[in-house]
Amino acid sequence: MYGPSILANYLETPSAPDAYGNRWQYNSQSDRHSKVGCWGVALDLLSSSGLLQEHAASGKVVLGVNHSMRDFGTSREKKLDLVIARPAGPVPRNAYTFRELAERYEIPLTPPQVSLLYDLPDIAVGDVGAVLVALEAKAAMTAHQKARPRLYDELNSSHLCVHGASNQALAIAYVQVNASELFVSSVSNRFSLRDYPVRTSLHKQPQAVQGILEKVAELPRRTGTSGNGFDGIGVTVLDFENNGGPVDLIYGPPAPGRGHPFNYEGMIVRMGHEYDSRFYHI
Question: Quick check: 219 and 233 in contact, CB under 8 A?
Answer without folding.
Answer: yes
